[in-house]
Amino acid sequence: MIRPLYSLLVIGAQPLLRRKLRRRGVAEPGYLEHVEERFGRYQHAAQSGRLWIHAVSLGETRAAAILLEALRRAQPDLRVLLTHGTATGRAEGRRLLREGDAQAWLPWDTPQAVQRFLAHFRPSCGVLMETEVWPNLAAACLARGVPLVLANARLSPKSMAQARRFSRLARPAYGALRAVWAQTEDDARRLASVGASVQGVFGNLKFDAAPDPLLLQMGRDWRSTSTRPVVMFASSREGEEVEFLRAIAGVQGIQWLLVPRHPQRFDEVAGLVAQAGRSVSRRGAWDGVPEPADVWLGDSLGEMPLYYALADAALLGGSFAPLGGQNLIEAAACGCPVVMGPHTFNFSEAAELALQAGAARRAGTMGEGVRTAVELVRDPPARTAAARAGERFAAAHRGAAAKTAQAVLALIER
């Protein structure tokens, strides 16, 4: 009885969800595109048999890109359906499409919308990236014989507690998955405890990402133009920038680089810098090289390797507020030492391994984090040692992409 009740609640929330889309669409017009796809209604005919990969947002889409590259190396004629939940995820996913591929919003989890989605696209197999397990979607795939798997899977202690609290809803959803391939042994244990069939621990796909060498070189070239050490706040989240600007007040001799996580906040963050009495220079306005300013603002997408190469050290966004932290693996692979705050539960094992490897340092507060980063960039031997440790750390944990691709293709063949 619990899933029908859940379905009624989701159906009843549809008007509120439409209103939410309209509000978000003011700042991010992408939310106003193809709105009816959210309800399982599609304008164009679709080919059946595509491999369906669901990557809800930007981070998951970047992980999906790594998996998709490995899949296409093994099967060049593979055709995929990419689905997303956020505008940034869909924009990033558009870059991955080839002729014969398709892209859509994943519908909200009502029985009717899910059934229309599956009947329209008729995928051969579904791959959910990292965390996205929905009760009606999982049940409908099981009923229609569509193998559904969870790849690069992770489950934090907090999410496990929530799943256990709603076990009558969550356990059948996880149990409907054909396979789960976890990032870590801890993730595997937590996922198994809520009913998932864990078939392997493959590691984190994000270790297999190769930074763009052209962006790395551009960042290094730009770094050589600064006479001051560069400290970056990478993938900052709402609320953290004000704390960061307060913490850097009075610190001299540092070039600050601020890169917000979400593009719809670029203008807002530029305004916060100005309100703090700091001059700001935005990446989008640079003509060849960074323009002088107290704070450089990275207001572009897809250029994180450039920013990490430009920086001497990076504070990790999402870790100084209780948000779980952002991906630190990319920074390590780019040779940029990381200073993390206390909240890294989204990447708990990667964070601990980076600490053990000497690629990252931990700080309890934003102020402590700024002081740690400044001390590091003012100590060139220590900074160089941390950068090299990061590169070794990233290289040592590669291999998840090949394992996951092999497992997906084997499932399709069966």
UniProtKB/TrEMBL annotation:
Q: Which InterPro entries match?
A: Glycos_transf_N (IPR007507), Glycos_transf_N_sf (IPR038107), Kdotransferase (IPR039901)
List the pathway annotation.
Answer: Bacterial outer membrane biogenesis; LPS core biosynthesis
Question: Which PANTHER family does UniProt cross-reference here?
Answer: 3-DEOXY-D-MANNO-OCTULOSONIC ACID TRANSFERASE, MITOCHONDRIAL-RELATED (PTHR42755:SF1), 3-DEOXY-MANNO-OCTULOSONATE CYTIDYLYLTRANSFERASE (PTHR42755)
Keyword annotations for this protein? Cell membrane, Lipopolysaccharide biosynthesis, Membrane, Transferase
Gene Ontology MF terms in the entry: Kdo transferase activity
Its organism's taxonomic lineage begins at:
Bacteria, Pseudomonadati, Pseudomonadota, Betaproteobacteria, Burkholderiales
What family does the Swiss-Prot or TrEMBL record give for this protein?
Belongs to the glycosyltransferase group 1 family.
Chief site of localization: membrane
Which positions fall inside the 3-deoxy-D-manno-octulosonic-acid transferase N-terminal domain?
34-209
Q: Tell me what organism the protein belongs to.
A: Ramlibacter ginsenosidimutans
Spell out the catalytic residues. E60 (proton acceptor)
- Record's Gene Ontology CC terms? plasma membrane
- Which Pfam family is one of those matched by this entry? Glycos_transf_N
- Per the UniProt entry, the Enzyme Commission number(s) are 2.4.99.12
Residues the UniProt record annotates as site (Transition state stabilizer)? E130, K206
- Name of the protein: 3-deoxy-D-manno-octulosonic acid transferase
The biological process GO terms on file are: lipid A biosynthetic process; lipopolysaccharide core region biosynthetic process
Query: Which reaction(s) are listed as its catalytic activity?
Result: lipid IVA (E. coli) + CMP-3-deoxy-beta-D-manno-octulosonate = alpha-Kdo-(2->6)-lipid IVA (E. coli) + CMP + H(+)
The entry's function note states: Involved in lipopolysaccharide (LPS) biosynthesis. Catalyzes the transfer of 3-deoxy-D-manno-octulosonate (Kdo) residue(s) from CMP-Kdo to lipid IV(A), the tetraacyldisaccharide-1,4'-bisphosphate precursor of lipid A.
The places in or outside the cell where this protein is found are: Cell membrane
Its domain of life reads Bacteria
